[in-house]
Structures are given as C-alpha cells and as structure tokens.
Amino acid sequence: MTRNLYDLKNGRYKQRDEWRRVKTLCMHWNNRSVRDAFNKWKKQATYGNTVIEVNEIGPVVEEVLEHRLDVNNLKDFMRKEGLDPDQVREVSDNSHKRVRGLMAGAIGRMQ
C-alpha cells in the first residue's frame, strides 16, 4: 500500500515537473517573440530617425536652403538694379525651366 502511495506521489511530481518544463518552454518562446518584435520596432524607429535627420537637418537640406537664399538675393539685386518685376519673374522662370531640364537629363542618364 505504501508503495502505491509513493508511486502516486512520484507520478504527481513527474507530471508537475513535465508541466513546469512545458511552461518554461512556452515562456522562453514568448520572451523570444517579444524580444524579436522589440528589435524590429527599434530598427524601424532608427530608420525613421535617419530619414527625418536627412530630410530636415542633413547637409543636403542646408545646401538647398543656401541656394534658395542665393536665388532670393539675386532677385533682390535685379530689382535694385532697376529691372521690372515681370522681367525678374521671366528670368527666374527661364532659369527654373533650364535647371529642370538639366535635372531630367541627369535622372534619365542614371536610369
């Protein structure tokens, strides 16, 4: 009789240990999934910050702003030299069209 009680008791411990192993396995899998999701989010956030930095703070943006200031200064200079606002606009439009054409040609060569 005592042997049967010991067997029941040991069987109960084995069953509990088995459930503990299954629980541990599931928790490890869950932690790994959460960690992978966090790493994926972290990578995307880093990419997002890089895009924002390039578009708002980067050297290209500074160069574009510098060129826009140069264009505005040239327009102001032409007005001070006595050109009509229509003439200034015409020169600006012609220059803009020429630059767009050059840009389209460069893009066409890159493809």
Can you walk me through this structure?
By secondary structure, the chain is mostly helical. It is built from three helices and no strands. It has helices spanning 2-56, 59-80, 85-110. It is rod-shaped.
Tally the helices: 3
Q: Helix/strand/pairing class, anyone?
A: mainly alpha
- Average predicted confidence as pLDDT: 83
What about the largest sheet? none
Using the CA coordinates, give the radius of gyration.
36 Å
Helix content: over 70%
Question: Gap between N and C termini, in Å?
Answer: 87 Å
Quantity of strands, as a count: 0
Share of β-strand residues: under 5%
Element string (H = helix, E = strand)? HHH
The low-pLDDT segments are none
* Overall 3D form: rod-shaped
Annotation keywords:
mainly alpha, 93% helix
Short account of what is shown:
With 111 residues, the chain is mainly alpha-helical. The chain is 93% helix and 0% strand.
How is the topology of this model organized?
Elements (H helix, E strand, L loop, with lengths): L1 H55 L2 H22 L4 H26 L1
